[in-house]
Amino acid sequence: MKLVTGATGMVGANLVLKLLEQNTKIRAIYRNEDSINKTLSFFKYKEKETLFYKIEWVKADLCDIPALESAFEGIQEVYHCAALVSFDPNDERKLRQTNIEGTANMVNLSIAYGINKFCYVSSIAALGETLSPDKTIDEKTNWNPELYHSDYAITKYGAEMEVWRGTQEGLKAIIVNPGIIFGAGFRYEGSNEFFRKIEKDFPFYTKGLTGIIAVEDVVEIMVQLMQNDQYNEKFVLVSENLTYQELLTYIAEQMNKKPPYIYANPLGSKIAWRLDAFIAFITRKKRSFTKALAISSHTTYTYKSTKVKKTLAFTFTPYTTYIPKIVRYHRSNK
User: Fold this and answer.
1) Rounded to whole angstroms, how far apart are CA atoms 109 and 115?
2) Does residue 325 belong to any structural domain of this protein?
3) Is residue 284 one of the residues assigned to a domain?
4) N vs C: which end of the chain shows fewer Cβ within 10 Å?
C-alpha cells in the first residue's frame, strides 16, 4: 500500500488517480471533510468517481505524530505532496511548521516504519541561484543563503534538507522540483490565479521568466521515478520557460480576453508591494502582492530538465496542449 499526503490538492489528487488506475492500494491523509470533497469533485470531473471510493482516508495533521503513526501502518511507499504555499510574511510560522517540521515527521516515520521509498514534491523555488551569464539553473546549482528568499522558498529548501538527512539514515528518496504546475479540476488553487486575473481583465505584465509544467507530467514522472531503480536524486521538472508576458498573453488569447497591456517595471513593482504591505497593515487583510512576488516576477532564470529527460526518456506536454484544456474547464465551471 502507498501513502499520499496532499491528496486533497491538485498534485496529490492527480497522483492518487494515476495510482488507482494502476490498481494500487492507496491510503490518503486529510485534515477536514471539506478538503475531501474537493478531491471527490475532481474525480467526478475526470469521470472516475468509482475509483475515488477505493481511497482509504485517514484524518491526520503533519504535525500530529500519533495520528500519522496510524497512517503508516502497512505502508511500503510514501508520496509526500502536502505543503503550505504562501508568500505572505505573516505566515512564516505556519510555513515552517507545515513544510519543515511536517516533512521531518514524515521522514522520521518513514525510517521508523521501514518505508521502501519516499518521494517528496519540492519546488523550483528551493533551487539555487546562478551568477553565470546564461542564468541557467539545474539540480547542481547551489543555494545561496546570502540572497533574498521568500519564507516559502526557505521552508521548501529546509524540507529538502530533512529528506537528505533521512537518506543519511538509510531512507531511499526522490525529490522533484516542479515549476508552476497547471491542471484542471481545482478552480481556486495555485496556477488558476492566472486564469482568474485574465477573466477580470488584469492589465499588468512583467518580462520575468518562469518555468511551467502540466500536472499530469509531474505525477507521471513521480510514478516512473518511484518504480525504477533511481533513488537519492533530485529532478527539475519544467516543460518550458516563458516570460510572464508570454504566458498571460497566451491565456488571454485562449479565453478571448484582452491581454495585459501595461508593463509593470521593477520600480513600479517595488512601489506596489510596499503599498500592498501598508494597506494590509491598515485593513488587517492578507497580503496579495509581496516583496517575494515582486522580485520573482522580474527574475530571468532558465530552468533545465535535461536530467529527467535523459533518465526516463521523457517528453513533456507542451503548454499549447494543456492550457486550452484548462480554459475549457474554467468555461464549463463558471
Assistant:
1) 8
2) no
3) no
4) C
